[in-house]
Design a protein that fits this description.
Distance between the termini: 51 Å
Shape: globular
Number of helices: 15
Helix content: 25-40%
Radius of gyration: 20 Å
Largest sheet: 8 strands, mixed
Number of strands: 13
């Protein structure tokens, strides 16, 4: 056992080092809390320098695709030819994890199952079988302490590991990567934005869904609709523009309102949907390791090039004032606007830029108002450049 392992994680109820900006990534629940000041995205933001360490170079801010989507070798849209039953999309993430485990690339997979008593509450696990990986399919839209299982990894003696996680978790993981005693770490990232506590999730469901108690999963999709899937298999659609902004404005975690790593820039491979056509997944290969991971399941996928259409800028600029005023439209008007935007609004990578712009501006304003002393340290240069395209309310 390494000497620093004598340090312990926080006790239950003890205040987190990042205080109200803590994203509950799980690092502070382990003896790796010793490194929290250098690893926490909300204490020391260092994504740009870490990109160079992980990928061999930082993103090129002069190239729009890298400015927005991070260091990458390739981006494609994909679907599984034979979807995994019960998967939220077609099961690409689960398929990669299973292939890596069963072909001996890794000895375990850090992923998130559901709590036995609450299918929407996260339960991070170190999966060692196909069944344990499949039990983690479907997103859990709440803050999840994925890194809390790092002590279990160390105790197991594993040397080759796959970690599936979101940006704040992956930045902390990368910061302690050389302390884990691994021979090889693979990182499969998912984009993440607007996460909530379990209580915040309940408020969102009760405010937005017709049947909050039967929601299996939901997602904010490229058609400008929130898609809810219910226990009976039915789908419920709610237009973005019909959300009760006044009620929901405070529901998102302060960490998520202070985050600028929507696209998970430090993962080897990213699987999401934000830059793909509706119904497809968006895959971003960031480095050679990510390419190897994708090639492992390439024959299971139907692939097409990424595309883009429309112009996001006017919609983003109009949205700044609407969000500040907490505008909530009548549902009939929300449906009408949603229909029009689906036809003429941004699509593909331009939808991705729309979402990034909207959230980066909102988060920049949130920090400026609530934590002005942290703006310089928590907002990366690429985010500042993106935000600078828009007219912001005066300070």
């Amino acid at each position: 056992m390494i000497a620093h392992h004598k340090a312990k994680g926080l006790r239950a109820g003890q205040r987190r080092p990042a205080k109200e900006l803590c994203s509950e990534c799980g690092l502070c629940d382990t003896y790796y809390i010793h490194y929290v000041k250098e690893s926490c995205a909300f204490i020391t933001q260092q994504i740009e320098s870490m990109e160079a360490t992980v990928h061999g170079r930082s993103r090129d801010l002069a190239q729009e695709r890298e400015l927005y989507f991070g260091v990458h070798q390739e981006m494609v849209a994909a679907q599984k030819r034979e979807p995994i039953p019960g998967a939220q999309w077609t099961g690409i993430v689960s398929s990669i994890a299973i292939a890596m485990l069963e072909q001996g690339w890794v000895e375990g997979v850090v992923c998130v199952q559901s709590q036995p008593s609450d299918h929407l509450a996260p339960r991070p696990v170190l999966a060692r079988t196909r069944e344990e990986i499949l039990a983690a399919r479907v997103n859990k839209p709440t803050l999840s302490p994925n890194l809390s299982v790092l002590e279990e990894v160390a105790a197991s003696g594993m040397k080759r590991l796959l970690v599936i996680g979101v940006g704040c978790q992956i930045q902390a993981l990368r910061a302690v990567e050389d302390k884990l005693g691994l021979e090889k770490l693979y990182v499969l990232g998912t984009p993440c934005v607007d996460n909530v506590t379990r209580a915040g999730l309940q408020k969102f469901l009760e405010t937005t869904s017709r049947s909050p108690q039967t929601v299996v999963h939901y997602e904010f999709m490229q058609d400008f609709m929130v898609h809810f899937r219910h226990e009976d298999g039915s789908e419920e659609l709610v237009p973005f523009f019909g959300l009760n902004t006044k009620e929901l404005k405070e529901v998102f975690a302060p960490s998520c309102m202070s985050c600028f790593d929507y696209v998970n820039g430090l993962a080897d491979l990213v699987v999401g949907y934000m830059g793909a056509p509706f119904g497809w997944q968006w895959l971003v290969v960031r480095n050679d390791t990510g390419r190897e991971m994708l090639e492992l399941v390439q024959d299971q996928l139907q692939v097409q090039p990424v595309s883009e259409a429309g112009d996001r800028r006017a919609a983003v600029q109009q949205g700044i004032g609407a969000y500040d005023r907490a505008v909530t439209l009548p549902m009939w008007l929300a449906w009408l606007i949603g229909f029009v935007v689906q036809k003429v609004g941004p699509k593909g990578l331009e939808y991705g830029r729309f979402s990034i712009d909207s959230h980066f501006v909102r988060n920049f304003l949130y920090l400026r108002r609530n934590h002005p002393q942290k703006v310089d340290s928590l907002v990366p240069e690429f985010a500042k450049k993106i935000v600078s395209q828009y007219r912001l309310p005066p300070q």
